[in-house]
Amino acid sequence: MQRTLKDMIKAITRGTKLHISVVFLGNHGNSMTALPYKNCIHSTEICDTAKSSYKELLTCIRCRNTVLRRVVRTKKPLGGHCVNGIYEYCHPVIRDGETVCVIFVGHIRSGNIAFDRLLCDRFSEKLVADLETDFTEEDCKITADLLEEHILRLLDKFGDGSSADQSGLIENIKSYIRENLYYDFSLKEAADFFGYNEKYLGRKFKEHTGLTVKEYTHRLRIDSAKEKLYSTDLKISEIAGTVGFNNVTYFNRIFMREVAVTPAQYRKERKGGTYGAEL
Fold first, then answer.
1. Rg from Cα positions in the chain
2. Structure pTM?
3. What distance, in Å, lies between the first and last C-alpha atoms of the chain?
4. Cα torsion for 89, 242, 227, 275, to the nearest 10°?
5. Which residue among 14, 35, 61, 205 is least enclosed by CB atoms within 10 Å?
6. Cα–Cα distance for residue pair 17/45, rounded to 1 Å
7. 226-275 pLDDT per residue, tens
8. Distances (CA, A) of 258 to 86, 116, 197, 242, 254
9. What is the pLDDT of residues 5-27, one digit of tens each?
């Protein structure tokens, strides 16, 4: 029985505190390489804490995107510490001269004195203790090599995303949108990242989803805003910023279009008649 990529990651990380994510590019991937959302992005408690403010969130996204693009461009692995002092190893998977995906092996406390101090200054003792320790760059390389072999085997046996329907590309774009949801990215940026013409990419996305990339992104952002309106007392202007809208008037207009009430009305209804924080 051939194990999925999800099974392989689960086996490799069992008994460790590692976090592994894989970003598939272009139309690459198949049902056997499909991963849950948490393995497509940075999804750990310490990362979520680091991204608790909009400014820090943008810093994290820019840092990850810079590394991702560099690894895709150079086709060479890269290990290093993020802006918060957490170590991560990035490994491109090459097939027929093309980068089909990038493996991230991280959530590691390297033991470097300077970065250890940064970690301890920024995060609670509990969060720092939850990081993997005694895991070297060579250990990361071995882990990434094992995953690369498995990914290539799955692509060879079950097919790569070269079919005419390009459903793999659409799923990869959706993952890209979720990863960059709170960052003000453009369709051109996404198209450049995946190596497609901007108009072609936009047309294919709408054919498969019935929505433009912008409409799909707005829906995800509004869903996130609805949760924040209900569960927090943040001002509406603050919520607009934290879900990726840099203009509160525009946020209000999109929210009204999607939900049929204003953000303030939605909050009032969900909180039983109390507005909570206002603009």
1. 20
2. 0.82
3. 57
4. 160
5. 14
6. 12
7. 999 999 888 999 899 888 888 899 999 999 999 999 999 999 888 775 44
8. 38, 45, 29, 18, 6
9. 999 999 999 999 999 999 999 88
Tokens 């940075």 correspond to 42
133: its two tokens: 């320790």
Show the tokens assigned to 272: 């039983």
Burial class of residue 1, CB neighbours in 10 A (0-12, 13-18, 19+): exposed
Distance (Å, whole) CA 35 – CA 105 = 15
Q: Which residue has the tokens 């894989």?
A: 22
- The C-alpha atoms of residue 246 and residue 231 are separated, in whole angstroms, by 21
User: Residue written as tokens 């949801």?
Assistant: 181
Residue type for position 223:
D
